[in-house]
Specification:
Oligomer: single chain
Pfam family, one: adh_short_C2
CATH superfamily: NAD(P)-binding Rossmann-like Domain
Shape: globular
GO molecular function: 3-oxoacyl-[acyl-carrier-protein] reductase (NADPH) activity; acetoacetyl-CoA reductase activity
Domain Ketoreductase: 3-180
CATH class: Alpha Beta
Radius of gyration: 17 Å
Largest sheet: 7 strands, parallel
Number of strands: 7
CATH architecture: 3-Layer(aba) Sandwich
Bound molecules: acetoacetyl-coenzyme A
Distance between the termini: 41 Å
Number of helices: 9
CATH topology: Rossmann fold
Helix content: 40-55%
EC number: 1.1.1.100, 1.1.1.36
InterPro entries: Acetoacetyl-CoA_reductase, KR_dom, NAD(P)-bd_dom_sf, Sc_DH/Rdtase_CS, SDR, SDR_fam
Structural class: alpha/beta
Length: 242
């Protein structure tokens, strides 16, 4: 029986590449969407692989309870979670508002708890599970204009390190992937002059690709990665070496 992989934020750049890679790996792939249903259905129809989509505001615990009920009704269980849903509300600290702060903390950090909490105990009971949390280079080094995002993404890896210890003996691994600047809509939304200055700081000399991130996630989800847990994999073209 194929494993069931849940990827949050699969309609985004990195999430979509992960879903596609997982389908190629032979998993049943399910993802969440937050955009209007029509838009999400149109996205689903455009994909050249099989993916089932569920509406879910990952920043809401109640929505994640409903997600669990729906996915388990359709697929029985979840074996792999990739917490990928995320947003930016960039502003200098002088200009940041409580709403900017709260939106990013709720979507990028609370969501990791809300989603993982639904499934991890059953993974432990069955003796196999994989949780891969998508953080960011900016959670590792901090980024001008991103006190909210950097704090949330650093928090993601704190969660990874703690939960990894709790479930290690049960065949469940918890890891973080920290992508650098990847060619997605999120990065293309940065003003061009600012973006070009950032690209100039990447030793590899280019943005990363979503497919490069998906290949790492695919490995972390595999049986061969059973000895890797609590790790933070940096994939940033050499922009932050530590
Ligand atoms: N370090 C030091 N000073 C900086 C700086 C930096 N990195 N960037 C800008 N400044 C300076 C500017 O030179 C400017 O100085 P002066 O006032 O003396 O001219 C001042 O700070 C204000 O900067 P801006 O004009 O840029 O301010 P703004 O309010 O127009 O824009 C901002 C602020 C929206 C945060 C903008 O700087 C920005 O978009 N920065 C990039 C943030 C970024 O990297 N976001 C990542 C998004 S993608 C993502 O998050 C995915 C991922 O995981 C990697």
């Amino acid at each position: 029986m194929s494993k069931v992989a849940l990827v949050t934020g699969g309609t985004g750049g990195i999430g979509n590449a992960i879903c596609k890679q997982f389908a190629a790996d032979g998993y049943k792939v399910v993802t969440t969407y937050f955009e209007p249903e029509e838009q999400a259905k149109a996205w689903q129809e455009k994909q050249d692989y099989e993916v089932t989509i569920y509406p879910c505001d990952v920043s809401s615990y109640d929505d994640c309870v409903k997600l669990k009920e729906a996915v388990e009704a359709d697929f029985g269980q979840v074996d792999i979670i990739v917490n990928c849903a995320g947003i930016t509300r960039d502003a200098t600290f002088k200009k940041i508002t409580p709403a900017h702060w709260a939106a990013v903390m709720k979507t990028n950090l609370d969501s990791i708890f809300n989603v993982t909490h639904q499934f991890v105990n059953q993974m432990a009971d069955r003796g196999f599970g994989r949780v891969i949390n998508i953080s960011s280079i900016n959670g590792q080094k901090g980024q001008f204009g991103q006190t909210n995002y950097s704090a949330a993404k650093a928090g993601v890896h704190g969660f990874t390190m703690a939960l990894a210890q709790e479930v290690a003996r049960k065949g469940v691994t918890i890891n973080t992937l920290s992508p650098g600047y990847i060619a997605t809509e999120m990065v293309m939304a940065i003003a061009e002059d600012v973006r070009n200055k950032i690209i100039a700081q990447i030793p590899v000399g280019r943005l990363g690709t979503p497919e490069e991130m998906a290949a790492i996630v695919s490995f972390l989800a595999s049986d061969n990665a059973g000895f890797i847990t609590g790790a933070n994999i940096s994939a940033n073209g050499g922009q932050f070496i530590h």
